[in-house]
Write a structure and sequence with these properties.
This protein is of the alpha/beta class. The protein has a single domain, classed as Vaccinia Virus protein VP39 (Rossmann fold, 3-Layer(aba) Sandwich), CATH 3.40.50.150. The chain has eight helices and ten strands. Strands 3, 4, 5, 6, 7, 8, 9 and 10 form an eight-stranded mixed sheet that branches. A two-stranded antiparallel ribbon has the order 1-2. Bound molecules: S-adenosylmethionine.
């Protein structure tokens, strides 16, 4: 699979990936990681977990992917075509403020995303998903209806989802991702957090 550090991309094979993960009992996958800030903060806060930030767009990843944390890796891939190397490795998935085709796939229950994710997961894996009003409005949904639709799709795919939890401007401001900060100071600082387990 294609990984990135700064502006350089490298191919990482399964053997090397497994060797890097060997001493970590938990691996988090941050889907649609953007500039990778959340993945970086997560890896720094939890040195006992391995963190993989994945995004289809490489340009935003140049800064945080320079970080030399042993438990952090950035991957360039589409969420609908997750690398086979991730198969059965992931114990926790985060998706923060998705837009574009990632949000679209959550809204339609796209099997390319949901089945791909299932293949990447370990038994009993958990998920945290944060959805914002502006992105859902652009996709033609109200925040509440969009969240409910995604919750239903995840439940159909076998996830046991908890009730939604609102995030206000303050919660967004303190959340460690670049997009959360933008939203906190933007026109529509509303988001909803979903969590669940597989
Ligand atoms: C609004 S940004 C959020 C970035 C980051 N999670 C944050 O909180 O700062 C949404 C990200 O989803 C990524 N994305 C959208 N569709 C994707 C897909 N199909 N596969 C992978 N990444 C995708 C975009 O490239 C973008 O970086």
């Amino acid at each position: 699979m294609e990984t990135i550090r700064g502006k350089m991309s490298h191919t990482l094979d399964l053997t090397t990936l497994r060797a890097r993960l060997a001493n970590y009992p938990c691996a988090t996958l941050d889907l649609g990681t953007g500039d990778g800030k959340f993945a970086f903060c997560h890896a720094e806060s939890f040195p006992g977990r391995f963190v993989i930030g994945l995004d289809s767009c490489r340009e935003n990843l140049h800064e945080f992917s320079r970080a030399k944390l042993p438990n952090l890796l950035y991957v360039i891939a589409s969420a609908q075509a997750l690398p086979n190397e991730l198969g059965g490795l992931i114990s926790h998935v985060t998706i923060n403020f998705p837009w574009g085709s990632l949000l679209g796939s959550l809204l339609t229950g796209d099997p390319l995303l949901l089945r791909g994710l299932e293949s990447a997961l370990r038994l009993g894996a958990t998920m945290e998903l944060r959805l914002n009003g502006g992105a859902l409005a652009e996709a033609g949904w109200s925040l509440e209806d969009g969240v409910e639709q995604i919750r239903r799709n995840l439940a159909r795919a076998g996830w046991r989802m908890n009730p939604p939890v609102p995030m206000d401007a303050r919660a967004l401001h303190t959340f460690p991702s670049t997009w959360a900060k933008r939203l906190a100071f933007g026109r529509d600082p509303r988001a909803i957090q979903l969590s669940g387990c597989s």
